[in-house]
Amino acid sequence: MAWGDEFLTTPMINSMNKALIFIPGIKGTKLYDANTINNEVLWEDVRFNFDDISRTELTFQHNERFYEEDYNTIVKPLQIEPLAYREFWKKLNPVYKNKFIFPYDWRLPNKENGRRLKLFMDELVEKSKASDRVATITHFDFVTHSMGNMPLRYYIQAHGMDRIDKIVFTVPPFLGAADAISAMAVGQGFFFKRDEIRKLARSLPALFELLPTYSHYAIDASDGSPIDLWNKDNWQKNLVTQGNDPEKNRSIEKFIVNLNTAKSELENLSKWMDHITEEQKAKMMVLVKTDVKTLTDIVIEKHPADGNPDNYFDFQKSLQYNEGGDGVVPCASSCHYFEDIPTYDFRNRPWLDDFKHPFFLKDNRVQRIINSYLSTSQNASGYENKVFGRSVHRVTALKNHQVSEDGITHIVTEI
Question: 41 forms bridges with which residues in the sheet?
Fold first, then answer.
């Protein structure tokens, strides 16, 4: 018996009729100003090399659309970031030859990019019908990185899996990340990394959709009890209190509107699997990394005695847990669906260069597994630990336990 024959398999769709779509994560696509002669790039590179970020700030939603606050700027997505994805893209080699990148404006709500993903798929199908050099495309495989999972899940919720065969979610923040709170509060973290980013961050609906929803992502410094940051009144007071500055007041108003909208949208998106069959779940795979120091929760001091504002976010006492995740996304978030979707955990290898969240797809183990899975008729549940070696394991359980630091008790989740 060949390896995997004992596991569930389904008839393989003719590879000539398949195409692959790769969806990058937040900041994974460069943004340029289409209203310039030379298509000036406004945002590029996960190393935060960008210019004049204020031109990428968004307005309030108007007639179901967002626009740039700068009237003379028209931002469009460009190519994906080569630093994070070039190697992966070159080595992405499933059994079929048709592969495409879905570059999108990652500032926008993920539901909107889910709509644009459908249009992109429709266009690829129609293009295949028009061409005499390719068979008609009937099905798509997907690989997503980080936030790229969300446009795809919105698509599935709206349109089902009829046109989708296989999916590989890599380091997905299914339940968000505390790192997004840091970006909102002080402009620091992987998602963003400049002090002046805070104002911009408040205008980006997608970033609000990355705020965490897992248990104990924010805790009271006095007793470790959970705090709900989806309630604006629990945010650090100076961040949400309006004053005499109209520009700051407008920024705070955007924060409140985006916070409330994201809460509603995420509650809706949590039902995305309601109509997915067990056979369809078995065609999905999640690849995660969980043994990197990761910001797991935010410690909040409700009424500081030293003059700091109420609900003070104490990032020095917030937990950076060694076994907590991939450096950005905690395993409580990335492994959330392990009981429904086969989930595989990549551990660091001694003496080798292992990659954290933004560069996860540079890991040669990840590249091999994706290519292998997309080129076989086996489902994701047919992969065994022995195939990957000792550094990759199927996630079979999550456990919560207490970690005490600086007199504060944190509740953390690990494999």
Answer: 32
Sign of torsion over alpha carbons 64, 65, 66, 71: negative
Q: Is 194 exposed, middle or buried (0-12, 13-18, 19+ CB in 10 A)?
A: middle
Q: What is the rounded distance in angstroms from the CA atom of residue 387 to the CA atom of residue 184? A: 41
Structure tokens at 248: 């700051």
Helix (H) or strand (E) holding 299: strand 298-301
What is the CB-side half-sphere exposure of residue 414 using CA atoms within 13 A? 19
Residues 201-246: tens digit of each pLDDT: 889 999 999 999 999 999 999 999 999 999 999 999 999 999 999 9
Rounded-to-integer distance, Cα 378 and Cα 259, Å? 41
CA 24 to CA 100: how far, in whole Å? 11
- The answer to whether residues 142 and 344 touch, using CB atoms and an 8 Å cutoff, is no
Q: Higher model confidence: residue 131 or residue 354?
A: 131
The rounded Cα 166 to chain-centroid distance in angstroms is: 18
Give the model confidence (pLDDT) of 253-283 as tens digits: 999 999 999 999 999 999 999 999 999 999 9
Q: Between the CA of residue 61 and those of 99, 202, 249, 261, what are the distances in Å?
A: 33, 13, 17, 11
Tell me the percentage of the chain whose pLDDT exceeds 90. 77
Short-list 183, 178, 185, 180, CA closest to 217: 178
User: Dihedral of the CA atoms 104, 191, 329, 93 (nearest 10)?
Assistant: 40
pLDDT, position 6: 35
Contact 31, 43 (CB under 8 A): yes
Q: What is the mean pLDDT of the chain?
A: 90
49-80: pLDDT as tens digits: 455 778 899 999 999 999 999 999 999 999 99
Q: Is 278 helix (H, G, I), strand (E, B) or coil?
A: helix
Percent of the chain with pLDDT over 70: 92
In 60-216, which residue ranges form alpha helices assigned H by DSSP? 82-91, 110-130, 149-159, 178-186, 197-201, 205-208
